[in-house]
Amino acid sequence: MRTRPLKVALLGCGVVGSEVARIMTTHADDLAARIGAPVELAGVAVRRPDKVREGIDPSLVTTDATALVKRGDIDVVVEVIGGIEPARTLITTAFAHGASVVSANKALLAQDGAALHAAAEEHGKDLYYEAAVAGAIPLIRPLRESLAGDKVNRVLGIVNGTTNFILDKMDSTGAGYQEALDEATALGYAEADPTADVEGFDAAAKAAILAGIAFHTRVRLDDVYREGMTEVTAADFASAKEMGCTIKLLAICERAADGESVTARVHPAMIPLTHPLASVRGAYNAVFVESDASGQLMFYGPGAGGSPTASAVLGDLVAVCRNRLSGTTGPGESAYAALPVSPMGEVVTRYHISLDVADKPGVLAQVATVFAEHGVSIDTVRQQGKDGEASLVVVTHRASDAALNGTVEALRKLDTVRGVASIMRVEGE
Ligand SMILES: NC(=O)c1ccc[n+]([C@@H]2O[C@H](COP(=O)([O-])OP(=O)(O)OC[C@H]3O[C@@H](n4cnc5c(N)ncnc54)[C@H](OP(=O)(O)O)[C@@H]3O)[C@@H](O)[C@H]2O)c1
What we know:
The chain is 36% helix and 26% strand. It is α/β, with parallel strands linked by helices.
């Protein structure tokens, strides 16, 4: 074993960074044996230097992250600050000064992954980010390496624990969205400002990263269609139950049937209770991958939290250190397929539509005509009447999002349709 240690600069020592530092210390001997050289924490950049940090030598703490990555003797920079800047500049500076980088930063990777990969390649360094998607769950490396010989057609995932906790609560207790969110906040599953989670921004960043790797195509955050889950109601769950379904916020990356394009989207959707993703409870994450040769694979586990996320960071750290010792780099960006990313209108799926209609003869025929005129074929219709008003629940066969939108627009114009109570896509069948 080499005795000269590999030097690691830790940028950020919060929820994830503090656990990375702890595991680096407590598992130092095992890590050294697995890598073939000891790893040494050479510096820790933070915002608040005076904060007490258990297990961290205060002499290593600095507020000057730029000086730390520019030292020139750093082998690996672990970026767990988060956000776009200064993380982006620190990562590119690290490459320019000879370090490889491990990051957990989904927001940055989804926005600027291509440029960061290019910078890593230019300097002959590694950029690893297993922790950026679904915390502890091995997903990036299986997609990038284990499935490199297969053709992935679909990635369907629950990649945000906060929203899964909320939806699971709504499902199991009949609670409304706000009540379930309040409980998630009280238990520490939701942030004080839950926007990034409940509006699907966090999941959309992960979808962009997953789609890019799965389809060997650059997929940027802007390419991902996004709908949050704040409008999901207890009534939607009741409808889902009647259909033998539950509701999940899903990140869905798909190759079109002709293989010529891909789509990436995040939205709430009904999935059958028989689908493996339906049984993913609480704040857990799971990703279902469908590919030509392997068939269906499911990856499941804790998608966040300091220690689980640090597990993924440490796995990357070991891999990058091994590469460093053998004078090589791991796989970089693979975007050779360069498939076009289609807009949401071209996505084809099934829909569950709930309409408030006048309870009088001929309404059903009128509604059915609108669906037919837009080429959307109806699978089932259920009608419940009450005091001259009725609710009509229509489940369609597969149709494009554009056709469905045209249908809904036309339905809204019918005198007999009082309102469109909800529209939910049905996935996983
Ligand atoms: N938390 C999770 O469960 C989880 C899961 C997967 C991925 N991630 C990703 O991991 C990253 C870190 O998340 P986290 O939850 O650990 O965040 P966090 O608890 O807020 O920690 C951020 C750390 O960065 C430091 N920092 C902030 N601005 C800085 C600056 N300008 N220069 C130097 N240090 C700075 C902070 O310093 P102070 O300590 O002085 O405030 C803090 O130590 C993010 O990209 C996040 O998306 C997190």
